[in-house]
Amino acid sequence: MGTTYKQAGVDIEAGDALVERIKPHAAKTRRPEVLSGVGGFGGLFAIPPGKYKEPILVSGTDGVGTKLKLAFAMDRHETVGIDLVAMSVNDVLTSGAEPLFFLDYFATARLDVERAEKVIAGVARGCEQAGCTLLGGETAELPGFYTAGEYELAGFAVGIVEKSRIIDGKNIGPGDRVIGVASSGLHSNGYSLARRILEDAGLKLTDTYEGVKLGDALLEPTRIYVKDMLALNEKLAVKGMAHITGSGLPGNVPRCLPDGTRAVLNESKWKRAPIFDVLQKLGEVERNEMFNTFNMGLGMTVIVAEADVKAALELLSSRGLQAWDVGVIEAGTPGAEAEARVDP
């Protein structure tokens, strides 16, 4: 008998078994517009009928990054799928779009069906939180390509928004306020620095430092803001939104501002999870480096008119979110790129 694909490291039967395990998780996310189930060559999804005059599709793609290294180290795989969904749907959301469906890519050297199911079940939970359908995905078994016991995740989201309701920041001007919405922790950015800090300090993920359980704090899943921000945009005119990811507040807030403006934030106006201060202390990390690497307690910022601040904060609070009036939009250098600074 000649050499088989399975002997070469690719187990098609295991892949088929995983698809069957995924199906009930995906079914929980099913929206009425879905025209096909998991397992086909392509996912079919209808534009919601009668809801849009000029529908615009908004797409986003991302991964989880080296946060996965922590999941491997602690053998905890249930929540990284939530992170995966969050990174894309929160991006799509900033245009005012409602996420419609999500696709995932899971790649590993040798497929462990039980572990993979835990990961994809997390993806499905993330889709439920975002109100979108897990429409399909790809599982790739790549022998010799990845370290044994590890995997890679990537995801892709598509949302929809009425053309006249796209949030593009064009109407933002001096005097508008910046609402900061609390993050759940580091979310999915800055983990290379976080891991280096713990390594240099000789600490393990199972350790507790100054009352913070390091592994728990660092694996806290990324908050998904979709339903809350869409509700906010229904109540009042959201002028701009920024998802605070890599490069932090200084790098992301300007992405939703028009040229010739700046956002001035005041660090004393919001609270952040203790893990940020733990990392800064352990690594003796300079303040600017912290703010240019981590979200520092704010996972999403929203620009509204000053007259709408009270209503915005009340709505977000009623939905269980911590949010604060953290800053103001000022006139910057005419014609210059927008910028943001965070004052102590």
User: Order of strands in the sheet with the most strands?
Assistant: 8-10-5-11-9-12
Q: Fraction of residues in helices? A: 25-40%
User: Any low-confidence stretches, pLDDT <50, length ≥5?
Assistant: none
Secondary-structure-based class equals alpha+beta
CATH homolog superfamily of the largest domain:
PurM-like C-terminal domain
- The CATH architecture classification of the largest domain is Alpha-Beta Complex
| Count of extended strands | 12
* The level-1 CATH class of the largest domain: Alpha Beta
Description:
This protein has 11 helices and 12 strands. With 344 residues, the protein is of the alpha+beta class. The protein has 2 domains: 154 residues, PurM-like, N-terminal domain (60s Ribosomal Protein L30, Chain: A); 167 residues, Alpha-Beta Complex (Phosphoribosyl-aminoimidazole Synthetase, Chain A, domain 2), CATH 3.90.650. Strands 8-10-5-11-9-12 form a 6-stranded mixed β-sheet. Helix 3 packs parallel to helix 4. The N and C termini lie far apart (71 Å). The model has no long low-confidence stretch (mean pLDDT 96). Its main location: cytoplasm. Its EC number is 6.3.3.1.
